[in-house]
Each structure stands twice: as structure tokens, then as C-alpha cells.
Specification:
The structure is a single chain. The protein is mainly β. Strands 2, 4, 5, 6, 9, 10 and 11 form a 7-stranded mixed sheet that branches. The chain has a 4-stranded antiparallel sheet with strand order 1-3-8-7, with no helix packed on it. It contains no helices and 11 strands. Strand 4 and strand 5 form a beta hairpin. The N and C termini lie far apart (about 40 Å).
Amino acid sequence: QVRLQESGPDLVKPSQTLSLTCTVFGGSITTAPYYYNWIRQPPGKGLEWIGDIGSGGSTDYSPSLKSRASIARNTVKNEFTLQLSSVTPEDTAVYYCGRINYYQRVGFKTSPDRGVGSWGQGTQVTVSS
């Protein structure tokens, strides 16, 4: 069974770049037909989809974050990463990485659900000076 684990700093200063890594165990990130996602949940708010990278390497982003987000992968280390530039306190959230399949992706971008697919435990990131 696949398992995912987020890692990265828990505190980032405003205007800096947030960088997170998701390591995948129990399955290759190049195996189709899966999509590897980043979502987040700000305090007191619902889940927000950030973007994903497919098993073929293609990426997709939320229109609201597209100018600041970048998702990449390292197939040797079997991990994928998120970089979010020019962060503000509004980027404070619990960040989750997860894997969903092609069919689960329908509607997921607008209504992310950690009950679909496989997800890491999440990592709290606070943006503060």
C-alpha cells in the first residue's frame, strides 16, 4: 500500500519561498494513471487544491496560485516537491500531499477530499516574521 510523507520547514518568513517535499513509499511516481497532489487547509477554512503532477510529468495548478506555485518531481528519489513563492501570512496552512487516480481526479480540483486516494498526515506551515 502506498504511503506519502510531507517534509519541510514549519516556519517561513513573508516574501520568501515555501518549499515542501513529499516522499512516496510503496509505489513509483511514474506508474500510471496517478496524479500527485498538493492541497492545503488554512486555519478555520476548508481544503484548497494547489496543483498536481501526473505520472507522465505534466503539471496543473489552481488558477489563483498558478503565478506562485511550482510542482516538480525527482523520479530517482521517488518524491515530488512544492514551491510557493512570495508567501504572505494568508499562506499559513496545513499542507498535504496525496495520490489520486485518473477517475478520482474528476471534480477533485474544485472539491478536494482527503477521503479520496492516499494522503500524508500533513505538515503545518506558518508564515510569520
